[in-house]
Amino acid sequence: MKPVVLRSERLVLSRPTRNDIDAITESCQDETFPRTLASLPWPYTRADAAFYVTRIVSLGWLTGRTLTWGIRESEHGPHLGSIGWRRERGDIGFWLDARSRGRGYMTEAVRTVCEWVFSSLGQERIGWEAVAGNLASARVARSAGFRFDGERPVEVAFRDGSRPMGWHGHRLRADDGSAHEGWPV
Ligand SMILES: CC(C)(COP(=O)(O)OP(=O)(O)OC[C@H]1O[C@@H](n2cnc3c(N)ncnc32)[C@H](O)[C@@H]1OP(=O)(O)O)[C@@H](O)C(=O)NCCC(=O)NCCS
């Protein structure tokens, strides 16, 4: 599948490239990441970022199995974060550089990706999961119109094989994107 560029009011979502390797390496030194992002290598090195961009992201688009966008403020702006949709699991995952948080960027990015996945890929449902207590992630999901499904261990195991208690949610194509009751945040 050819990488797709998505645009929203303040953001451009486009495929991460080799030019983003340093920014991704720097962002992923965040000490909260190993607790919140199941599949992120840790410690995170430049080689991990290079592998991510040249293999994981490229193959994901090529096969259409994992579609990953870098979050930017303009077409050629720096890489501020990442958002991805996984076909097999039908879910989304995301992170933002600590310096770019608190502006509603991730909520905007999640809404944009969901709307495209529903309208262009014809999917009926998008899932979300986070480690229980990840308030920032849950607020993004709630603000982006997801419904809360409850607490049970995460489905995607962490690097050490553990499956901590998780929060789960989903958004349906038929949903209008407004916030739902029932969230613990
Ligand atoms: C999750 C993450 C992308 C959210 O980024 P963000 O910039 O806060 O996102 P937004 O600005 O869109 O904010 C969304 C909401 O979270 C709230 N929020 C942000 N950080 C918070 C925190 N530490 N605690 C509680 N609420 C928080 C915001 O106030 C906002 O709430 P509102 O919609 O009710 O106003 C960011 O915190 C992050 O990258 N965390 C580490 C990686 C991670 O946890 N990824 C998700 C894995 S499931």
Question: Which small molecules are bound?
Answer: coenzyme A
Average pLDDT for all residues: 97
The largest β sheet comes out as: 5 strands, antiparallel
- Report, as a whole number of angstroms, the end-to-end distance: 37 Å
Spatially, the strands of the biggest sheet line up as: 1-2-3-4-5
- Rg is 15 Å
Total helices: the number is 5
Strand proportion, as a percent range, falls in: 15-25%
Describe the structure.
The chain is of the alpha+beta class. The protein has one domain: 3-Layer(aba) Sandwich (Aminopeptidase). Helix content is 30%, strand content 25%. The chain is built from five helices and eight strands, in the order ββαααβββαβαββ. It has helices spanning 21-27, 33-36, 46-63, 105-121, 135-143; strands at 6-7, 12-14, 66-72, 81-86, 91-96, 125-131, 147-153, 165-172. The strands form two sheets. Strands 1-2-3-4-5 form a five-stranded antiparallel beta sheet, sandwiched between helices. Strands 6-8-7 form a three-stranded antiparallel beta sheet. Strand 3 (66-72) and strand 4 form a beta hairpin. The longest helix is centred in the first third of the chain and has 18 residues, at 46-63. Coenzyme A (COA) binds next to helix 2, strand 5, helix 4 and helix 5.
What are the SSEs and their pairings?
Elements: E1 6-7, E2 12-14, H1 21-27, H2 33-36, H3 46-63, E3 66-72, E4 81-86, E5 91-96, H4 105-121, E6 125-131, H5 135-143, E7 147-153, E8 165-172
Antiparallel strand pairs: 1-2, 2-3, 3-4, 4-5, 6-8, 7-8
